[in-house]
Structure formats: C-alpha cells, structure tokens
C-alpha cells in the first residue's frame, strides 16, 4: 500500500496589508453592513455586492446610524461614510478589491456557491474572508478553485463596535493566508484570535452557547425566569467580564495563591451539580495548562494588583451603565 | 395509612427593615469582610466574629482598601469605616444585632454547627442569612432550633461592588423571612433575585459554571488557550453583558422580530455541536416563556431602541476600560 502525498497548499501571495485601499463586502445585511461601516471608518473605500434591491438604502441607513458611534471611537484620517458603492453584479463589486469580506446568510449551499463565485472573480492573491458563525471553511470551500485563499474571519455583532474577530482556516487554506488576514484585522484595530484548527462555534460562541443552553434549561424547568437570568449576569459577573475574562476572574477568586490555589481548593466543586454540563477530569496536565495560562495573562501583576484593577473597572463600568440607564429613563 | 401533616412554619417576626442599625458579620474573610465594608458604607454598625487572631487586622486592611471605591460610589450619611468591632466570642458579636450575615468557609459541617450556634444566640426574630455559594439552606439548617429564620443571601465577589444577591430559603424557612431579607437587601441598594426554590449553584453561578466547564474542556482538548478564552469574552460578548444579559442579547440578534424570530430562525442551531452541553427541546411552551420574558424585559422598547442603548453602552464601556488599561500600563 502506498500513501498518496497531499499536494502542497500554494501560498496565495496577497498584497502588503498596508497597501490595501479598496475592500469588497459581499452581502450587506446586519453583519456585512456593519463591516462596511467599520471599513469606511478606517478610511477604506468599499465596493458592496447584494442581490436585494433595497440593500443600498438599508446599508446607507446602517452606516448613517453607526457613524456617530464610530466618530466617538475615533475615525481614521480621510474616513468618508460615502466612500461606498453598491452593486448587483458580483464581478463589478470585486473589481480592484484587495480584500473580500463575505457576509451572506448562514445557508451552507449558498456560502459554497458564493465563495466559489468570489474566488472566480477576485484578483489573484486577494484574500477572501467569511463572516460565518456556523460553518467551517473546510465545508464551505468545497467548490472553490483556490481554497488556499479562503479564511474564516468571524466578527461579533455589531462588527463596528465589538473588537473581537476569530480567524481560522480550513484544511485547504494556506497558513500564509491565515497569517495575512490576522495581521490585516489587527492593522484595522481589531482584537484577533487566530485558532490552530476548526472547532464548531469557534471560541466565544461555544462559551456563550453553553451559558445560553443552561439558561434555557433553567427556564424550561421553572428554575429561573428570563429576567432573573439576565439580571444575574448584568448585575453580577457581567460587570467583571469587560476587563477580565472567566479564567482570570477565577485566578482572582483563588486569593494570593491565584488559579493554582483555586483549582486545588475548589477543584472538587467541578463535580457539583451546578450545571448540566459535565466537567472534564482535572488532570495534572489540565491544571498545569490553566495555571500557566493565567500566569501568562497576569504578566507579572500580583493578585492584589489585579484585584485593584478589577475593582476600578467594576466601579467605572457601573457608573457609565447607571448614567446611561438614567439618561434613557429621562 | 394516615399522613402526618407538616407542622406550619412559624413567622419569625423580624424588626422593621428601616429600624436595623447593627449587623453581625459571622466570618470575615474575603466575602464576610467585603460584606462588613459594604454595611459600614451604608451607615450601619458592624459586630464581627471570627476565630482567627489575625481577623481584626485583615478586615481592617480590607475595609481600608475598599473605602475609596465605596466613597466613589457614594457613602450613606454618617458612614464610618471604624464603626466595627471584632470578637472571638460569638454571643458577644450577636448581642444587639438585628441582622446576621454568615460567611464562614464552605464546609457543610462547619456551616451546620455555626448556623445552629448563631440561631441559639441571636435575639428572637432576627433574620440570619448565609453567604454560601454551594449549599442549600435545607442542608445547612438541620441542627438549628429555628430554621424558619435561616435564609441564603448569596453575594458576588467583591460584595461591596457587585450589586447581585441571590436569596432563597430552605424547606423549613418561613416565606416571611425570605421576603424580609429580600426587602432588606433592596433597602441596602442591592440587586436582589429571589428564587422560588433551591437549585444547586443558584442562577449566576450555574450560568458561569457552564461557561467555565466548556472553557476547561477547550483547554483540555487543545481547542483554545486560556488567553484566547479570556479575550473572546473581554473583547466580545463581555462588552454587551453589563447592560443586557444573554437573553436580551439574543432578543436583539433576532432583528425587528426579536426573540421570537431568533428562536424560529436559529432554533435548529440549538442542535449544533457548539458546546458539549445538550440543549433542551425547543417546545412551544419554552419558546413562549422565553419570548414573553424578553418582551417583559424590553418593557415597550423596540429592538432598534434597545440596539441604540446597547451600542451606547458598548462605546462607554470600551472607553472606560481602555482608559483604565492605559492608566495601569503607564
């Protein structure tokens, strides 16, 4: 028996990140339109494609609604909310574009066809990113001639305000394309998480989904109301999470001993029936990975220093939220 | 066969909420000390009990560290950070107290013994709340002579900054005691969730725990690093959660059709392998409860209005967090 060696994945050789001036947005609903608003705010020219005859008016309204927020966060020099053209012809929208962001509806067959069409029309070397939240690029790229340049770039809603973008390639994606698109989003000011391999739901949505399913079970069983679930987050752990994520939060819960103390002390509670999700075995290896990860994140800051930073953040966040609530009630 | 009727639960007849001036804090570690700082900031006198000889110095340091934050959030008239006495004799700490907050370590036998002792020494009618995060009052109250006045009042760390308190009684707790302690915490300015029945982990910790376990699985399987998990929350959904909880977040994701549209459209994704936690069946009843709950929370605000409020909150939260990060890096 002989093994056929896999063909090497070609490097698409994209343009320099800093040389990009024109972006194609394929699909300009809530997500694609949000991307368009963001790209405009960063000073790029946008060529949009959307089959709907109302797409132009809708994206205009979306950009106009988003612009004050984008201005508040700071526009790039020369940013122009009108530097966008809307096309119903795909080749026209892709003409001259040096990067493509696809944000079509979450229908696999549609994504497969559209990515193949984009690939057929985009200039050689141009990277094509998909906003998909539900599919892997391995599934979506099956009909494309150059899957090496197709990458997932999954934003969060609204893409012009939430910094997170999750980047991951498919089996046929070139590592150079993954690296390029990560560098590109970072150049745009995004907070980029580059994943090594495809995981359904990526990272943030997996975590959100676990919480959401537990919440649905609680409503289903009469254990909590919708309002109680929401308030348990907004007035509880939700106040800590904009500064410190769930891991670092528990690092602080361990006191001066940090995550190591926390796991040794509260490890047994992993077996408590506090959620319907079964916990992994707390092996030495897992313990070590979590402790080392928290130490990396703490980056020399002691637990008391992190606590002081958390407390300042909670106060500041509470104050801005209370101001906004008073304002909207007035 | 005859059924022995359960003895009626007596009403403990606590004092008027507004008449409370003196509080006993039993156990003054991180949680109990945090409660003490909060009670002092609200203008109460605190009598603390702790068996550790260092407890007095530790709680002094904790209160002094917390006081600037409490001052920033606004002190009650006459609030005095020194209006606290620390005792090693339990009866002395309870003498004259009109409310008791127990915050001993999470060891069931210790809690059972301590709650029985508190119950034996506290004046009649005084309500006794436990900060437990892990036990039900039904389990903890077994040795107490008057379980009708024992209630769980579960805070979040740090109790002087996070508004949430979860309140739930045990099988022998008087509904009047549950109502009293809810009214009392609200009087103190807390955000109170009163649960109808005991659920392991209460609400916020169940939700947190589902997310935490999914995160541990991801680390265990090499699907994400600790840093990626934290950043996926801080730079992603964590920015939305201080204003709008997970339910209302998805209400907005449904567009103008809100949660109803969201469930009808994305309901099938409940079956996607986006977390290891199995989803409940999306029955008409569950759908109805979730949609009605979101409508109640929206309280007449349209989805575009909620979106505008969310966007303002994200901008404000991002700005304060970025300011704090720049400040701590300086």
Structure description:
2 copies of one chain form a homodimer. Chain A is an alpha/beta fold. The first copy, chain A, has 2 domains: 17-194, 3-Layer(aba) Sandwich (Rossmann fold), CATH 3.40.50.720; 236-329, no CATH class. Chain A has 12 helices and 8 strands. The first copy, chain A, has an 8-stranded mixed sheet, sandwiched between helices. In chain A, strand 6 (150-155) and strand 7 (164-169) form a beta hairpin. In chain A, helix 9 (246-253) packs across helix 10 (258-266). The mean pLDDT of chain A is 94. Chains A and B meet through helix 2, helix 7, helix 8, helix 9 and helix 11 of A and helix 2, helix 7, helix 8, helix 9 and helix 11 of B.
Strand content of chain A: 5-15%
Please provide the ordered H/E string of secondary-structure elements of chain A. EHEHEHEHEHEEHEHHHHHH
- Structure classification of chain A: alpha/beta
CATH class category label of the largest domain in chain A: Alpha Beta
Shape verdict of chain A: globular
Number of strands of chain A: 8
Oligomer: homodimer
State the CATH architecture of the largest domain in chain A: 3-Layer(aba) Sandwich
Low-confidence stretches of chain A: none
CATH superfamily assignment of the largest domain in chain A? NAD(P)-binding Rossmann-like Domain
Total of DSSP H or I helical runs spanning 4+ residues of chain A:
12
Family (chains A, B): Belongs to the 3-hydroxyacyl-CoA dehydrogenase family.
Pfam family, one (chains A, B): 3HCDH_N
InterPro entries (chains A, B): 3-OHacyl-CoA_DH_NAD-bd (IPR006176), 3HC_DH_C (IPR006108), 6-PGluconate_DH-like_C_sf (IPR008927), 6PGD_dom2 (IPR013328), NAD(P)-bd_dom_sf (IPR036291)
EC number (chains A, B): 1.1.1.157
């Amino acid at each position: 028996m002989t093994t056929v060696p896999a063909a090497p994945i070609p490097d698409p050789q994209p343009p320099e990140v800093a040389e990009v001036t024109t972006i194609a947005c394929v699909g300009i609903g809530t997500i694609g339109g949000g991307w368009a608003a963001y790209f405009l705010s960063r000073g790029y020219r946008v060529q949009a494609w959307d089959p709907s005859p109302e797409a132009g008016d809708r994206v205009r309204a979306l950009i106009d609604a988003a612009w004050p927020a984008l201005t508040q966060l700071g526009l790039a020099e020369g940013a122009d909310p009108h530097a966008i053209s809307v096309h119903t012809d795909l080749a026209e929208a892709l003409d001259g574009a040096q990067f493509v962001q696809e944000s079509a509806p979450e229908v696999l067959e549609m994504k497969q066809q559209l990515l193949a069409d984009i690939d057929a029309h985009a200039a050689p070397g141009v990277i094509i990113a998909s906003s998909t939240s539900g599919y892997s690029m391995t599934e979506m790229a099956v009909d494309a001639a150059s899957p090496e340049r197709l990458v997932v770039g999954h934003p969060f809603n609204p893409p012009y305000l939430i910094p997170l973008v999750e980047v991951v390639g498919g089996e046929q994606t070139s590592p150079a394309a993954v690296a390029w698109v990560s560098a590109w989003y970072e150049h745009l000011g995004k907070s980029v998480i580059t994943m090594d391999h495809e995981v359904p739901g990526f990272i943030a949505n997996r975590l959100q989904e676990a919480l959401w399913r537990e919440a649905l079970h609680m409503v289903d069983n009469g254990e909590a109301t919708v309002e109680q679930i929401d308030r348990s987050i907004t007035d509880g752990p939700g106040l800590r999470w904009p500064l410190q994520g769930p891991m670092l939060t528990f690092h602080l819960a361990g006191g001066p001993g940090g995550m190591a103390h926390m796991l040794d002390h509260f490890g047994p509670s992993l077996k408590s029936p506090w959620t319907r999700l079964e916990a992994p075995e707390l092996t030495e290896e897992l313990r070590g990975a979590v402790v080392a990860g928290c130490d990396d994140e703490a980056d020399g800051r002691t637990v008391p220093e992190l606590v002081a930073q958390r407390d300042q953040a909670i106060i500041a966040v509470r104050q801005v939220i209370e101001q906004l609530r008073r304002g909207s009630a007035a």
